[in-house]
Amino acid sequence: MKILVGIKRVVDYNVRVRVLPDGSGVDTDGVKMSVNPFDEIALEEALRIKEAGKAEEVIVVSVGGDECQQQLRTGLAMGADRAIQVKTGESLQPLSVARAFLKIIEREQPGLVILGKQAIDDDNSQTGQMLAALWDRPQATFASKLTLSDGSATVVREVDIGLETIEIDLPAVVTVDLRLNEPRFVKLPDIMKAKRKPLDVVPLEDLDVGADSNLSVTKFAPPAQRAKGIMVEDAAQLVQELKNRGLV
Amino acid sequence: MSRILIIGEHDGQNLNLAIAKCVRCAQAIGGDIDIAIFGNAVDAIAAEAASLDSVSKVIAVSADHLAAPLAVNWAPEAVALAADYSHVLGPSTTLGRDLMPRVAALLGVNQVSDIMEVTDSSTFKRPIYAGNAIVDVQCAEGQTIVGTVRAASWQAVDASGSGSVESRAAAGSPASHSRYVGLEAGGGERPDLQSAAKVVSGGRALGSVENFELIYQLADRLGAGVGASRAAVDAGYCPNDMQVGQTGKIIAPDLYMAFGISGAIQHITGIKDAGTIVAVNKDSEAPIFEVSDIGLVGDLFKVIPELESLLG
């Protein structure tokens, strides 16, 4: 079985993102970029499945400009066997990304596709579900446990009211939550090795992905700030303040 | 004029409170508001939905295979109804986040996730980068608008309505490739985190499962729901469904009390809409104090027992 893992290049989660003064976007100049943290978890899971002898090949896929090759190389250094860049200069919305992934799926015929549950830049949480819909296959979102058996998977999902378990036939799309695993650190020799692993570049135009532009982002603004609060000295003062505000 | 369909979330017994908040968002869009209820034996839930203020009609679709909220089974039902509507909305709960993108893809559109404000019937504000930026999203003319409603941004409408209920047969058949196994519910008897008026929350500083009991005790004294930072959940001090923040729950209680939570931006985005934020932390430099309304620099192991006795 092949496993396909999605990798998105995003602003590192430790960076405090600032909106540009003219409202045209956020400041990414000289800002540290990383693999979307959920995608690292997705890749780690795929690697563990392979190491357990249940998959033969792990392929990382990213949609973007050449700069995303950096994140694909990180994926290769973590242990992926090869990488595919779907090359485009445009910033695509989730439906187009899902369509591009579907084309790669048709070429590669994976038994499992693992993606992060959301990207921490757009916070959309759409691509995996859209891909499953277009592929007409099962989806198991927000996975915190994944158990493979012959031709199917049991997935524990983190939902608002607890932990839900579903069973899905493969091939399928799984999107991963934080507590599925802890991704491994990349070691220096692996970075060297990753440079020799194959990275295919596929121009988006070659995939014949239809245009989708039903949404456009017209303005960026900083969030509203909360008014400055007060500090109290002890528990008694705190309770008094809460009483004054009618909260207890 | 807009025709808005809201996909109703429920637990088989009651309508999720987030749906009354979706109705408020639909009111802001303006137009006819209908609610679809998918499930099995949903008469009581449909009646509850029909009683929400300004709801015209509830479409109840009952079938065995719709009893569990599997997106693969619910999405075709939503798509079958969508042709009559300009907008199809769901809540930004885990159910809505699972279901609605599947609906959007089947309709061939991108989704507007986490609608926090309506500018007009096709322009919406939503947060990105963990709430560090707010964007205006403009939807193209002539295509169905699919969106999820960020519940914490909207007040629930009341139950003063008198909509009609129409039962329909399921349009789709069960997907054989996906099977619902079961739910291990967390939470227990305490107020639901996403609708509680008060929430007491604990962070890594609690240090252990045993110590986290302090948070439960204070919450029970206040009749509050219980939340946690990602660090506390990752450390195993409490269940995952308590996590508040960018990748957990976004909440807006009247009172939020954070103990031993440093206040990473990913956590802050989950509590920004709270009425009053109280922070207790040993570290006077903790970023949580930048957003707190009432801050106290102190040891939570001393402060919590004091609060309990003062509130007793």
Please provide a brief summary of the model.
Chain A has 248 residues and is an alpha/beta fold. Chain A contains six helices and 13 strands. Chain A has helices at residues 37-51, 69-78, 94-108, 127-135, 188-194, 235-244; strands at residues 2-6, 9-11, 33-35, 57-64, 82-87, 112-116, 139-149, 152-159, 162-169, 172-176, 199-203, 215-221, 230-232.
How would you characterize the overall build of this protein?
The complex is a heterodimer of chains A (248) and B (312). Chain A is an alpha/beta fold. Chain A has one domain: Rossmann fold (3-Layer(aba) Sandwich). Chain A has six helices and 13 strands. Chain A has helices spanning 37-51, 69-78, 94-108, 127-135, 188-194, 235-244, and strands at residues 2-6, 9-11, 33-35, 57-64, 82-87, 112-116, 139-149, 152-159, 162-169, 172-176, 199-203, 215-221, 230-232. Chain A has a nine-stranded mixed β-sheet with strand order 9-8-7-10-6-1-4-5-11, sandwiched between helices. In chain A, strands 2-3 form a two-stranded antiparallel ribbon. In chain A, strand 7 and strand 8 (152-159) form a beta hairpin. In chain A, helix 2 crosses helix 5 (188-194) and helix 3 (94-108) packs across helix 4. Chain A is globular and about 65 Å long. Chain B is an alpha/beta fold and 312 residues long. Chain B folds into two domains: 2-168, Rossmann fold, CATH 3.40.50.620; 198-311, 3-Layer(aba) Sandwich (Rossmann fold), CATH 3.40.50. Chain B is 26% helix and 29% strand. Chain B is built from eight helices and 16 strands. Chain B has a seven-stranded parallel β-sheet with strand order 5-9-4-1-2-3-10, with helices on both faces. In chain B, strands 13-12-14-15-16 form a five-stranded parallel β-sheet. In chain B, strands 6-7-8 form a three-stranded antiparallel β-sheet. Chain B is globular, with a radius of gyration of 21 Å. The termini of chain B are far apart. At the A-B interface, helix 3, helix 4, strand 7, strand 8 and strand 9 of A face helix 3, helix 4, strand 5, strand 7 and strand 8 of B. Strand 9 (162-169) of chain A pairs antiparallel with strand 11 of chain B, so a sheet runs across the interface.
